[in-house]
Amino acid sequence: MFRPTRRFYENKSPMPPTHHITLLRHAESEGNVKNLFMGQDDHRLTENGRCQAHALAQRWAHEGRMFDKIIASPLSRARETAEFIASELGPPIETEPLWMEQDFGEWNPLVIPDVIRDPNTPKYFT
């Protein structure tokens, strides 16, 4: 059984890490506000979402964060969020469809509480 050592938690390894990956979810989108199953439906950021993305970009710039590249889903909500980060920090943006949210099929345009209340919704979901 693996038991992490203190060095594991403190990252006191004699070798520096070779990669550092930061995962960021998109800022608030129109679909979030409407409580929709968005899936691969394309919803833009709300004004609040644009403020969130801009504030994070400014915070990271102030902290001196640096990124070699931003990889984002081609969906508007992810691309717009990435653009705010890139505008402050300068890395290029690459879009990659593999980062798109899963497709919820017929649920995509539906409101989440309605799907959960539907007696035909599989119980593993609720």
Q: What is the radius of gyration computed over CA atoms, rounded to a whole number of angstroms?
A: 19 Å
End-to-end gap:
34 Å
Element order: H for helix, E for strand: HHHEHEH
- Please report which band the strand proportion falls in: under 5%, 5-15%, 15-25%, 25-35%, 35-45% or over 45%: under 5%
Which residues sit in consecutive blocks of at least 5 with pLDDT less than 50?
none
- The best one-word shape is globular
Which class do the helix and strand fractions yield?
mainly alpha
Q: Averaged pLDDT, please?
A: 87
**Looking across the biggest beta sheet, what order are the strands in?**
1-2
Number of strands: 2
Major beta sheet summary: 2 strands, parallel
Helix content: 25-40%
Structure annotation, total helices: 5
Oligomer: single chain
Task: Map the helices and strands.
Elements: H1 6-10, H2 30-33, H3 47-63, E1 70-72, H4 76-89, E2 93-95, H5 112-117
Tell me what the structure shows:
The structure is a single chain. This protein is mainly alpha-helical. Helices cover about 35% and strands about 5% of the residues. It has five helices and two strands; from the N terminus they run αααβαβα. It has helices at about 5-10, 30-35, 45-65, 75-90, 110-115; strands at about 70, 95. The chain has a two-stranded parallel sheet. The radius of gyration is 19 Å and the shape is globular. The model has no long low-confidence stretch (mean pLDDT about 85).
Q: What would the keywords be for this entry?
A:
mainly alpha
